[in-house]
Here is the input.
Amino acid sequence: MPEPIALIVDDERDIRELLSLALGRMQIRVEAVETLRHALNLLGERRFDLCLTDMRLPDGNGLDLIKHVAEHHQHMPIAMITAFGDVQSAVNALKAGAFDFVSKPVELGTLRNLVQQALSLREQRQDPVATLIGESPDVQGLREQIERIARSQAPVLITGEPGVGKAVVARQIHNRSPRAAAPYVELACSAMAADQLEAELFGKSGAFLAADGGTLVLEDIDSLPLTIQTKIHKAVSDRAIRAIGAFADSAVDVRLITSSTKNLEAEVAARRFRHELLYRINVIALAIAPLRERPADILPLANDYLARHAERAGRKGSVLGAEAQAALQNHTFPGNVRELESLLERAMALSNGGVIESTDLHFAKTEKTPAAGAPSNQALPEVIEQLERAQIQSALEACRYNKTKAAAHLGITFRALRYKMDKLGLE
Here is the structure.
């Protein structure tokens, strides 16, 4: 691979010399200019592998350069050099299409990490996202969005109904990013008690430090207490945390991906979510459509699940009969992809042979408790399991898959619900 070349745009001579020296030690050739006009001219003449630009230039704004690159030179990562603590400029740069930002005075270790991650994009294969299943226009557009988003370091907020596949999309963004070989840490915020969350996030072996250099995914971020939200905002803004029990801050380099099933602007209005945190995490917004709005994806998802199940089991898999296919396509799937997988898991257990018929599909909303005294050819444990599964599924749907509320609705503890969901394959 040829030696990379970087474009530096800054009107301060000392900064240009510092950056040129640092990149030169990384075996990167440098072109350093001081004006927006000169930078645009060079971009029109040759190809660069990386660009670093100051915010304020004698004849324009660094944001103008970022927008130009996003439109005409999408292959090239561009990073903004901002004044220390200038959060507004950093967020604006990321929204405009910047790969990342670095604050003055430039810390050479931070700069080196940024440059290495940016240049690693050159080495990545550009094949489409292969593991995002579906044929609908929504999924095709989602694949394209993931490709673009993965090239950035900006925080991402993924929204959508429970079970639509937010975790799958988060994983795909990480896998397609320069951080793919670094840690990937997920934390289900709604699954933990408030007194556990601080340790899970900011402990010496907590999520922020564990994800250093990689990606941190916070699921259901709307469920976090306000005090924890404040600490997360500070961590993201400062790129550092004070671990519990520590006497000094530790720098952390994480890309933050968050998810929510709620309208966070409405949560801000209700004073349940901090406005400043929403501003920082919603740099790139990604909404996933529910399964009922993309019926073309139902059968591809179903067939993929059956194939994966067969591969894990090491045997020939089940297939969907024609009537079963029609029944699936006619179902609204309030539980989305998660409900589809649960439904197929149950159908495989109930079907005779390798073909799943429509009679094997027992949708949660239509399942009924057997009448008293009705004969059954099923063993008692099987009947109880089916009833438990139906009741839990119904409670989850009624509570929009908020497990804490569903547990209260069922009259059991949250831990008991998690145990039963795992046992019944409802996760």
Remarks:
- The longest strand covers residues 78-83.
- Residues 380-398 form the longest helix (19 residues).
- Confidence is low (pLDDT under 50) at residues 125-129, 365-374.
- The domain at 137-289 is CATH 3.40.50.300 (Rossmann fold).
